[in-house]
Amino acid sequence: MSGIDADSIPIRRSYERDVVQPLKKWNGGLVTEFNNVTYGSHVYPLLAMEYLNVFVPKNSTVLISGGVHGDEPAGVYAVLDFLREEADQYTDRMNMIVLPCINPSGFEANKRKTMNGKDLNRLFGTGSDQPEIRSAEEYLARLQMRFRITLDCHEDGPTDEMAEEGVTGADVPPGCYVYENMVDTKRRIGRALIHALPPSVEVCTAPIVYGDTNDQGVIAYPEANGNPFYAKGTSFDAYLLDHWTDHSLTMETSMLWSMEKRIEVHRTWIRTALDLILRERVQ
Ligand SMILES: [Zn+2]
Q1: I need a labelling partner for 215 at 20 to 30 A (CA). Which of 84, 127, 191, 280 fits?
Q2: How many CB atoms lie within 10 A of CB 155?
Q3: What confidence tens digit (pLDDT) does each residue in 174-212 have?
Q4: What's the predicted TM-score (pTM) here?
């Protein structure tokens, strides 16, 4: 990457140890390396875990993702823990595509952005040649799947990487919340995800979160949108909504909590969402 000495960027955790090796060790699904991305001497494989069962109804395929922002690791760990310990309780009844870490260089550097300074959640659907974006878009295009739901695990907390959007550490709302994109109000599950949390988990009650309307932990799109950056539709959830689903969620835990708590909240949300979808199909 021109102008960036990636090898001078401090490494805070290991993508190989935390993501690649665990994925390759489990044989529940098919590990697919859909591309790789290079920064200096670092070469990161971009990985998906695919659970595709021809006997499962096609309209119950889900997409679960994490690590779009590299300094939000609980989503990555939660997705991996879910794959290791719980996925097999679902994969006989639903198909699953899992992208555990979309931004490996940010994950290793513990930065929101990639090692060449790109916020991936502002580049989807823009024709960007950023390799993580192009690779994910091409992979999804090859799959040609409509997802019943997409779940993207994020975290919220103080960062110095959002200054260009006018966000400082003081703007960070306390507690967790979810963005839900679903036009049909009857099919929304955001409220159920918040209700599934134990009382010890603080839910964000701020009426406005980064310009969007928050109703006790649920930011319900399209009507809640007030944030001009999200209005551009260049986040991963908006891209998925445009192309591959009619129901996309972005789930946010607080980076001020312990890692264990953050992971547990994401796992509760993933499990609750999948249970609701299975129940809906039975009815
Ligand atoms: Zn994020």
Answers
A1: 280
A2: 25
A3: 999 999 999 999 999 999 999 999 999 999 999 999 999
A4: 0.96
